[in-house]
Amino acid sequence: MSEVFIPQRPVVTVHPKMPEAFKEAEAVAAFLKDKGIAAPHGSLYDETLRQRVKEGEFDLLVAIGGDGTMLRAGHLCAPWNIPILGINLGRLGFLIQVDRTEWLEAIEQLLRGEAWIEERMMLQAEQVHTGEIVGVRQALNEVVVGRGQQMRPVRLEAKADGRLLTTYVADGLIASTATGSTAYALAAGGPILPPELRNILLVPIAPHLSVERAVVLSEGSTVNITVRSENTVLSIDGQSPVILEEGDRINVRAADHTARFVRFGDPGYFYRNLTAHMNQNPSIGLTR
């Protein structure tokens, strides 16, 4: 369990496509104001607000939405070491401990010093084209190299720390964090990993006559995924795909920074949260 955390300069953000989130944000900001704490609020995608985050104006970001909102908040806040408190308005909330009916009590606990900070590993993905790095992106859940619009499988050569693992013939290959093990990797048949692990999980998507099993790589490993066919794209945490060419390589390793989340109670919250969602259908109405 990490250090006790009491914020002094929070900001409240929302998913811009969730109208009910703005009303909730106003209520949170008003509650904090009553406690003597000024907390501006607005869209997580507002460039002015995002710049203020990057300039270190805030010591806590409250993200109101679903798991997708938490992913975007993680991308924004991790490089600046800013903790995130999620309030769930979505359907799943694997990343979120606090429900919309519980935030008042949670913030009261936070201000009493009864919260702690959980750190989760992120991934860094380098896109290499003709020997040059042409893009570097961060992932909290997963890096996916998969097929594009055509319905045929792709060939992907995977190496771990320079050693060949296998060449997959599949719809794609997921390189996931422990956090992402409850996301796309889980849907593809991968195992669930405890969130504190710093391993990389490799899970093939619909493999055809190739290795079916997921592989958990040791902490500190680097994965190299080389494209050996056409019709291939790169997607990071479900964002818009980037078209890849045959011969392109994606290098995946642990990022230099971590995502930091405000948590309550003991670390066993993860398993209680997981159990609560085990029988839910994650494909219906998930807020991204």
Description:
With 288 residues, this protein is an alpha+beta fold. The protein has two domains: 10-114 and 265-277, Probable inorganic polyphosphate/atp-NAD kinase, domain 1 (Rossmann fold, 3-Layer(aba) Sandwich), CATH 3.40.50; 122-256, Tumour Suppressor Smad4. It is 20% helix and 38% strand. It contains six helices and 17 strands. It has a six-stranded antiparallel beta sheet. A six-stranded antiparallel beta sheet has the order 13-12-11-8-15-16, with no helix packed on it. Strands 2-1-3-4-5 form a five-stranded parallel beta sheet, sandwiched between helices. Mean pLDDT is 93; it is low at 284-288.
> Strand portion, in percent?
35-45%
Helix content: 10-25%
CATH superfamily of the largest domain: Probable inorganic polyphosphate/atp-NAD kinase, domain 2
What value does the Rg take, in angstroms?
19 Å
Please outline the major beta sheet.
6 strands, antiparallel
Strands, count: 17
The number of distinct structural domains comes to: 2
From N to C, what is the helix and strand string? EHEHEHEEHEEEEEEHEEEEEEH
CATH topology of the largest domain: Tumour Suppressor Smad4
What would you call the shape? elongated
Mean pLDDT: 93
**What's the number of helices?**
6
Instruction: Indicate the low-confidence ranges by residue numbers.
Output: 284-288
Q: What is the C-level CATH assignment of the largest domain?
A: Mainly Beta
How far is the first residue's CA from the last residue's CA?
29 Å
Q: Which CATH architecture of the largest domain is right?
A: Sandwich
**Content-based structural category:** alpha+beta
Q: Give the strand order of the largest sheet, numbering strands 1, 2, ... along the chain.
A: 7-6-17-14-9-10
